[in-house]
Amino acid sequence: MNSEQKERRRFFRIEDTVNLFYKRVDEKMVTALSHVSDDVLSNCSLAAALDAMSQEARIVGSRLEKNEPELFEYLKILDSKIHLVAQAVMMQGNEFGEHDSRNVSISASGLAFEVDEALHPGEFLEIRMMLTSCMAVIVAYGKVIHCKRNVAGGDFPFYVGVDYVNMKDDDRELLIKHVVKKQMQQIRESKQGS
Amino acid sequence: MDIASLVGFLLGIGIITAAIATGGDLMLFVNVPSLLIVLGGTFGVSLMRVSLSDFLRSFAILGKAFMNKKVNPADLIDEGVRLADVARKNGLLALEGEEISHPFLQKGISLCVDGHDPAFVKKMLQQEIDLMVSRNEVGQDMWKGVGDLAPAMGMIGTLVGLVQMLANMSDPASIGPAMAVALLTTLYGAIVANCFALPMVDKLASVLVYEKANKELILDTISGIQEGMNPKVLEALLHSYISEKKRQTDAGES
Question: What is the ipTM of this complex?
């Protein structure tokens, strides 16, 4: 197994349906600078930045919860309010519609999704996807690893596998959390179904 | 096995016994009716204070003072961080095959693997912690009661002995031995309370604090795993359960 394959299997994958669209981009654009704006107020960075801050806050929060439980409850309510406002802002700014949803196999190191055109291995893509678990939009660059016929059929004749390139750590964290939450939901649904 | 409890108890009783033996006949200090008044009376009256099930359970809880196995929170943190890493990289179902040392952690992981909602898991585990605390507190109350009642029973035994002695004042030679026997119940009561019951209450309280902190640490670990939290962040979060001094010692060692 070569290192590229190892890299692709670094994280667990789940089957999901997400709102996603992509466009071809030049390799220079991918490798030149960070593809995602560092401006925290851009929709794409906001969710990741809020999540990173929440993680920092949790460390202090666990101590506060023991010493000042009432204050901690109050701060939790404020935190929820901030997240609701952020989600509303992100929903207003995103360009996704119901018709953009596709079947994907998603992990924190790569993505495979349905496409309606053949893509060539080595091509670079800009991918925008909305994670429903946290209502965050992730913008990532990826390199096409394979493109096969979509055996599942449906509206999309091809199935493309992509490795993320230069992904920000905060975005990767969001993806990992999404995958874990989604897996939990899928296990729950399958148990309820049976 | 908590060696300190066993050694402390044997040392306390041993030193008293040795001191008595060096001063004369050891059998002078053995009196069955006095023992019955103190032990029987103490446990009998204790039974009035609590329900039968709590009374019986308090003996099982007492075992914790001798048989508790102290789990190092640093080991729990290492294990939790490892499991969080497995869940992120291989998925929640991969946790099923992992070796888990602590039964409470094992239970939390089973709930994760079953896909239960994080709020439900937290509620369930928190409820278990609360029940453990209340069960232990009932046990502690019972042994604290024994510690309070034993000297009182000793005093009652002494009074009974004095009454019997005063009723037979016709034989002055018997007053001394009868007085000695009467005072034995006070001695027994003081020994039961101060060499056993009250130290056990303190030991159970410290075991409970330790066990509760470890279980709360596990609760936070499970929440972190269900969130897909970064193992480094989870480790930093869980380190708040270790004292500053211990953290510095561990950092120095590594």
Answer: 0.75
Is B94 within 8 Å of B234 (Cβ atoms)?
no
Q: φ, ψ for residue A41 (rounded to 5)?
A: -80, -5
Question: CA-CA-CA-CA torsion for A87, A92, A96, A99, nearest 10 degrees?
Answer: 100
Report in angstroms the alpha-carbon separations of B149 from B36, B48, B49, B162, B185.
14, 12, 11, 20, 12
Q: What angle do CA A161, A163, A165 make, to 5 degrees?
A: 150
Q: Specify the DSSP class assigned to residue B39.
A: I
Residues of A in contact with B91 (CB under 8 A): 12, 14, 179-180, 183
What number of other Cβ atoms are within 10 A of residue A162's Cβ? 26
**Size of the A and B interface in Cβ pairs below 8 Å:** 66
What is the percentage of chain B residues whose pLDDT exceeds 70? 95
Does any CB of chain A come closer than 8 Å to the CB of residue B93?
yes
**How do residues B79-129 score in pLDDT, each as one tens digit?**
999 999 999 989 999 998 899 989 999 999 999 999 899 999 999 999 999
Query: 């605390």: which residue's tokens?
Result: B133
How many residues does this entry show for chain B?
A: 254
Residues of A in contact with B88 (CB under 8 A): 11-12, 108, 176, 180
pLDDT of res. A12: 86
pLDDT per residue over B205-218, tens digit each? Answer: 999 999 999 999 99
